[in-house]
């Protein structure tokens, strides 16, 4: 419990700094929007490039592992979007944001340190395999869903081709094929930009929390939190231990990965479309606050003390 608390407190610290900066008038809403744009267009792409070019992929793909985790993603994303649309009468894109928020895990800021503490070096391979493909798949899915209804195929393709995150993925794949390492100075720049993604995103989200709070529908944020912290890891646990066969460590990593609070990338996606920001920011704040207790519970379920 103490370790979970030490991991989560810095997250709240950065959120709090952004919130106080906006509440006191030291920074305005434009600062948060500009910072969000920087994270989405520059910092996160740098982080994707750094992660994908360094990932060590297995010779045979662990399909049971992928299907267990992303099977849970499909369930909670669908439930989140349907709950938002049916009971809270949100727009199509807001429904996409709600589903994305329910399914997106906070990996870099909370998941990585917690899972490595739980499983040590043995958990590093399954953890970073999932980290490498988690964000690209989630962001691509959200973009296609947001752009895909009633929109010409040409526009969808243009939006995808111009998406900074997908450009980063394409460049990363090309860099892996070429195999030439980045020059020292350029690598340092990429590493610095990638390192800035998490802190800047959290600070910007703190500004958004002051601006939007829990939104007009705080019950929706609570529902998305329940999907993220309870339903997602439960579905993954069933799939990883009852449906598919994999080592216990791999199953544990998948469950803990799913049990992490709502990820900040859902907020960045909402900011990008300038809609559903209150939905994502509220759920992220609530789920991050409750993940101290929920993480301790899932650690106990997986036999980690």
TrEMBL record:
Keywords: Cell membrane, Membrane, Transmembrane, Transmembrane helix, Transport. Belongs to the auxin efflux carrier (TC 2.A.69) family. It comes from the Bacteria. This is AEC family transporter. InterPro entries: Mem_transp_PIN-like, Na+/solute_symporter_sf. The chain crosses the membrane at residues 63-84, 96-116, 128-148, 160-179, 185-207, 219-243, 249-270, 282-304. It is a multi-pass membrane protein. One of its GO terms (cellular component) is plasma membrane. It comes from Alsobacter sp. KACC 23698.
